[in-house]
Amino acid sequence: MLVLLEHIQEWGDKILDRFGLNKEYINLDIFKKIVYIVPDLPRQATVEITNICNLNCKMCPRHIFKRPERHMEFDVYKKIIDRLEGIEEIALIGYGETMLYPKLKEAIKYARGKGFRVTTVSNGYFLTKKKIFDNVLFSGINLIRFSIDCVDGGEGFGHKSNEDVLHAIEKLRVARDREGLNFSIIINPVVAKWNYEKIIPLIRWAERAGLDQVDLAHFNQIVGGKGGLSPDAEIKLYKKIKESNFKIKVTSLYDRYFGFRKIGFRFMTKCPMSYDVVYIRQDGGISPCNCAFPNVVYGNIFDEGIKNTWDNQKFKNFRKHQQKICRKCTLFKLYD
Question: Does domain 40-332 have CATH number 3.30.365.10?
Fold first, then answer.
């Protein structure tokens, strides 16, 4: 199989060279994911730098994990990063607000200095503070997602926003362009019953603000309760968005049902998460998924290390039986 894939890569390169196209369009790693060949290491490691948050969103599963709320010690963080050689991307995310982490700028710079691509997620509330704004702006971050669910403040169910937060995000884009910096700013709303009619106005705002992308997240009913839309209502919204022809790029779970991505998800019977990502807790515990399983630990980066954990029997069993274990997960399908 690997020999065949290498031939496909070689043929693809020749075709692209013939027409002067970018070789990134055909990549051996993509073909490996389609046939679910486990890579030597995950592409991304999500590092839980904090699980402290200033909000208490009803659809957030923080309350069910029942772990002490604290920041990761910076020395521990550096030791974790030092043990992730060979991984492409570090996502500084956890079930908390990353801008509350006292050494966020230092954490980003440390990982970037090791050659990693670094991303993070924030609700944006602390971007209104000048010191934090400047720290984020000049941190060297590659991509930042803002969890904003609407432009009118919200009703207390999801990620609330206010005019100050929205203005700070707009200012960040302006400052980025003025300084000639190169990082992406993405709005990442959770689509649910309470903000169903607020999504298109949010996309319009992001487009006017000159942001890079809106990435619509599906409401995860496994951990968030019954606030999700019916499949028909959600797909109807996604179709309406596609037909609106926004200039800003908009992505959603709906995209997985068509074309190449549908094949990559094995027609919605397999999820690439366990072939692509690990979640690393503050104690070094390694989980197979950051969506609903941070309490499930299959190894520890300080004991077994990333490679041995990635290849151990627990991870293999999770991949083998993921359709049963994750049967209700939104990464597989929209569900009622």
Answer: no
